[in-house]
Amino acid sequence: MTGPAVLGLPVPLIPGAPGLLDRKKAWWRFRAGNHAHPERNEPSAGALRRQRIAPIRCSRESVTLFVRLMATAPSPS
User: Fold this and answer.
1) Model-level pTM?
2) From CA 59, how far away is CA 67, in angstroms rounded?
3) What's the rounded Cα separation, in Å, for the pair 76 and 51?
4) Does 2 reside within a domain?
């Protein structure tokens, strides 16, 4: 039972990785060049916070689901 747990636990952590990045710096690097006036089109602080929290929350819920499923899985006989 430890094999699936060891191999499967890192997988739900992958969606949370983008939440660790600096969203404002990423926006200026990859998206600002598409706009004539990037200062006017920059996302608000709330939007940046939402973009940061959403992947972390998704990863947290995925880990919780994985742990709950592993805890309730029938043991092999």
Assistant:
1) 0.71
2) 12
3) 41
4) no
Residue 29 falls inside a structural domain: yes
Nearest to 22 by CA among 55, 58, 59, 52: 52
Mean of the per-residue pLDDT values of the chain: 85
Residue 16: which domain range? 11-72
> For residue 73, is it left (φ>0), alpha (ψ between -120 and 50) or beta?
beta
- In the chain, the number of structural domains is 1
pLDDT above 70: residue 2: no
Please report whether residue 19 resides in a domain.
yes
Tokens 């919780």, residue located: 64
Rounded distance between C-alpha atoms, residue 70 and residue 25, angstroms: 38
